[in-house]
Amino acid sequence: MKDAPHKPRKTWKSRTRAVHSGTRRSQYGEVSEALFLTQGFVYETAEAAEARFVQAGPDEYIYARYGNPTVAMFEERIAALEGAEDAFATASGMAAVNGALVSMLRAGDRVVAARALFGSCLYILEEILPRFGVEVVFVDGTDLGQWRAAVTPGTKAVFFESMSNPTLEVIDIAAVAEIAHAAGATVVVDNVFATPVFSDAIGQGADVVIYSATKHIDGQGRCLGGVILGTREFVRKTVEPYLKHTGGAMSPFNAWVMLKSLEHMDLRCRAQADSAQKVAEAMEGRPGIARVIYPGLASHPQHGLAARQMERPGTVIALEIEGGQAAAFRFLNALQLVTISNNLGDAKSIITHPATTTHQRLSEEARLSLGITRGLVRLSVGLEDADDLIADLAQALEAA
Predict the structure, then answer these.
(1) CATH hierarchy code of domain 13-261
(2) Nearest to 319, CA basis, from 294, 297, 336
(3) Which terminal residue of the chain has fewer beta carbons within 10 Å of its beta carbon, N or C?
(4) Is the confidence at residue 8, as pLDDT, over 70?
């Protein structure tokens, strides 16, 4: 296998990198990326097997848990798109969160994290890491004073979602990174809501960026996947040994699906963000809705920061339905176009009720402290016509 003969990558713009970076072609010269659906690889001789286990060369593979040509293409392509030196593809987004954190931490280390996180991320930080002697301190991610107080010298890492799930708080990556780096801490950012299209987290100071590829990268509700991006040293010397021995690698088939989705991710995300802006503006101030949360609205507390930090304000909206859970359920059940599910970033518009699904494990007090009320719903805007979405939301509001 060999790299495709293209002009130097540094001259490519992001949409071109999303189509061509990392391409490998076999001796058959295929146009579409090849799917190497194999868990193992053969060796010409016993001596060749011994040599590969000692030190695998470029495009030499041992076992799919360690690496695979199709997975390598996805890793190189997403790394080029993100502006990272390297990437490791994982079986799911949560495998990426777990792999990035656990691979770098040990008993006695200190982690400072934003309090507003996805439920499974909170589980890792609140339940798993403390079991093994890692100290975890939570702060209000939008309060830089709390970051300064908590990130003491010797802190190993800080962790936050650049835009929180589901209340869409936007955290100042550059400011938190400056605080963290002054204390010698590694900055780990879950960047899924910001998308690889609209965010430059590494350019703003993040050391490690995590995506659930299940979301916008696939974008069509088909496959699980995740990816950890960072320096080559961190990815290959810290992340890879942990994940290849604990089994969190992405399957070749899923990597092939993600590769094909990267080709049109830019177009999808921009169309979805256009519609999200239109839907948010149409819903703001409408009877039956107490609050619309979307970084593209001037009413959002971090509207200015979002405009500086992201090219576009994303594809997800939060709506506070008046009347609590009963009204929210009536609203969801009356929808005819928008689908009730718990994914996001899909071509289909998807809505969920976080208090009873993604964040149901939390106590009522903890949910309320995060702004997750019984009336809050999270809407991931898809590729449908925005006017059709607005009409569906409006008729469901009347029913609620």
Answers:
(1) 3.40.640.10
(2) 294
(3) N
(4) no
Phi-psi region of 244 (alpha: psi -120 to 50; beta: other; left: phi over 0): alpha
Written as six digits, the tokens of 7 are 């002009």
| Rounded-to-integer distance, Cα 279 and Cα 273, Å | 10
Of 248, 195, 250, 249, give the one whose Cα is nearest residue 219.
195
- Output DSSP code: residue 74: H
| Sign of the C-alpha dihedral computed for residues 274, 344, 102 and 372 taken in this order | positive
Q: Is the dihedral of CA 175, 176, 179, 185 positive or negative?
A: negative
Domain boundaries, the chain: 13-261, 266-399
Q: Which residue has the tokens 């703003």?
A: 204
Q: Which amino acid is at 375?
A: G
Compute the distance between CA of residue 210 and CA of residue 190 in angstroms, rounded to an integer.
Answer: 5
What is the topology classification, in CATH, of domain 266-399? Aspartate Aminotransferase, domain 1 (3.90.1150)
CA-atom Rg of the chain in angstroms: 22
Write the DSSP symbol of residue 244: H
- 0.90 exceeded by the pTM? yes
What is the token pair recorded at 336? Answer: 């005819």
For β-strands 157-161 and 2-3, DSSP reports them as unpaired
